[in-house]
Design brief:
The protein has 14 helices and 27 strands. The strands form seven sheets. A seven-stranded mixed β-sheet has the order 2-1-11-10-12-13-14, sandwiched between helices. Strands 4-3-5-6-7 form a five-stranded parallel β-sheet, sandwiched between helices.
């Protein structure tokens, strides 16, 4: 089926065409199960048309932005498909975000409408909505009376059931379908502008890597506000498969969930596999239909142990929100322990600081570009300087240091950018530092990653206390909990007399990383896992 998708003419690589194509090709075949709701393939276009009608009735027009903050439920997909049908862009917001992050997302994107689950509404109390273009809020579920009052000029209504069906807008493959915020490395989070054709190619490439066909059942426990899970819908839409979205990842409930869903393809992140392997062995790990999984960032030894226990091979790969599934392994790859080999339709270069290509075996920054138009993101929303910087010399600069071996395989070395990845989330050290510096007892700080036992990063902060003001690391962590997503709250905190700096005063984070966790370090081992 995916070979047919590759033959779709360039001007037809849009969400409305994708939805009409799947309705025609796959009709009554099962498409979707999510939070007790189900769709056939022909239902997706109808759902998009009536949700677009409701959005249009609320004053949303082509080119507008719609923010969404909810868990894995049907309203998320309705809003996404309706926005794409209408020619608007969806702005998914991480459900762990607190007031300051929500304010930034809404202000930067200038979203006119917010779709939000009732459980998250109170977080808007610490966001200054006057800085935003927000005019209307749709609340999913029952909101507690008196919990929060919207400011003047912002209308709050229950999530509308449906609107009058409208015809799709004349969207083009390069028009923005979504703005996906990925954490900045030395500044605020950047809104990645994802065009319709990029979403199309995410579905095509991922389905090809995994060998997805019409008889497959795709199952993910990952959140829809990330491209990984959102992409599974495209895979199903293009191939006639069925996709099951679960509400959350549970180590003890993972295999029972896979059995109940009938899953044949699963999606995991690096840290999830060691967590699953830490569970007691049981027959349930083999009593399932899963034939393959996608597991980017899974350590090689963990992947081998996972296959030995479950019978499921995990494929590696590389693709950021800005790019596409450009590098991947395959079930018959000659060796493991690598990100994979370059896929058709993409070009890659391992380059030095001047973008000059390096020979095999030498580490450098991974640069990528696509052969097909609009297969990559088109930039960062309202950040022209950052866009030019990342896409300079006609290559996208990933910020990741890799090695290309003589056989063409790419191996990940480390990240060049000052970013932290924890629990599958990219964390901006800058944003964590800003919260720490807002504490009255902190004079200076630096936030950086240290390795954890789960083959991912933990967040560590080194700080200098204000003179005469004692700092309690446990109290500081509690201070962060109300101002940061849970995964961004520092686990480790060092209180130092001063931070290592260069001659011009810049903090030398590499020295702090090398110093790492010591006997004097406060360890607030997270309750969540």
């Amino acid at each position: 089926m995916t070979s047919d998708a590759r033959a779709v003419p360039p001007l037809q690589r849009t969400l409305p065409v994708m939805l009409r194509r799947q309705a025609e090709m796959f009709g009554s075949r099962a498409l979707l199960r999510i939070a007790g709701r189900a769709w056939a393939h022909r239902d997706a276009a109808d759902a998009a048309a009536v949700r677009a009608g409701a959005l249009a009735a609320a004053g949303v027009t082509q080119g507008d932005r719609i923010a969404v903050m909810c868990g894995n439920r049907i309203e998320f997909l309705e809003s996404f498909l309706g926005a794409g049908w209408l020619g608007a862009s969806i702005v998914p917001m991480n459900t762990a975000s607190m007031g300051p992050q929500l304010e930034y997302f809404l202000a930067n994107s200038q979203a006119k409408l917010l779709v939000i689950e009732a459980a998250f509404v109170e977080r808007l109390a610490t966001a200054d909505l006057a800085r935003t273009a927000l005019r209307e809020i749709w609340v999913i579920g029952e909101m507690q009376a008196g919990a929060w009052q919207a400011p003047a000029g912002v209308r709050v209504v229950p999530y509308p059931e449906a609107g009058e069906a409208v015809e799709p807008a004349p969207v083009q493959p390069g028009d923005a379908l979504a703005i996906l915020y990925t954490s900045g490395t030395t500044g605020p989070a950047k809104g990645v502008i994802c065009p319709h054709a990029q979403y199309f190619w995410w579905g095509v490439n991922s389905a090809e890597v995994l060998g997805v066909g019409a008889d497959d059942v795709l199952c993910t426990t990952l959140p829809l506000f990330h491209i990984n899970a959102l992409n599974t819908f495209a895979q199903a839409a293009l191939t006639g498969a069925e996709v099951v979205f679960e509400s959350r990842f549970s180590a003890s409930g993972f295999w029972p969930t896979m059995r109940a869903s009938g899953a044949t393809v699963v999606y995991l992140l690096g840290a999830m596999v060691p967590i699953l392997l830490a569970q007691p062995e049981g027959a349930g790990e083999r009593e399932h239909r899963v034939r393959i999984g996608l597991g980017p960032g899974v350590p090689s030894a963990a992947g081998a142990a996972f296959k030995a226990r479950t019978g499921v091979s995990l494929l590696e790969g590389y693709g950021s929100t800005e790019t596409n599934f450009a590098i991947a392994t395959a079930p018959d790859s000659p060796r493991g322990g690598v990100m994979g080999w370059l896929r058709p339709g993409f070009q890659a270069r391992v380059a030095d600081a001047h973008d000059v290509a390096l020979p095999p075996g030498e580490a450098g920054e991974l640069l990528l570009r696509a052969d097909e138009p609009h297969a990559f993101a088109s930039g960062y929303f309202n950040m022209p300087e950052k866009t030019v910087e990342a896409w300079r010399n006609l290559w996208f600069h990933t910020g990741d240091r890799v090695v290309r071996d003589a056989d063409g395989a790419f191996r990940f070395v480390d990240r060049i950018k000052d970013a932290i990845r924890r629990r599958g989330e990219n964390i901006s050290s800058f944003e964590v530092e800003q919260v720490l510096l807002s504490h009255p007892g902190v004079a200076a700080c630096a936030v950086y990653p240290v390795r954890s036992e789960l083959a991912e990063d933990e967040v560590m902060a080194a700080l200098v206390a204000r003179e005469g003001v004692p700092v309690d690391p446990a109290e500081l962590a509690r201070f962060c909990e109300g101002r940061l997503p849970y995964f961004a709250v520092p686990r480790y905190i060092d209180v130092l007399a001063d931070l290592p700096r260069t001659e011009n005063g810049k903090v030398q984070k590499f020295k702090l990383r090398e110093r790492g966790v010591g006997p004097q370090t406060w360890d607030g081992r997270p309750a969540r896992s």
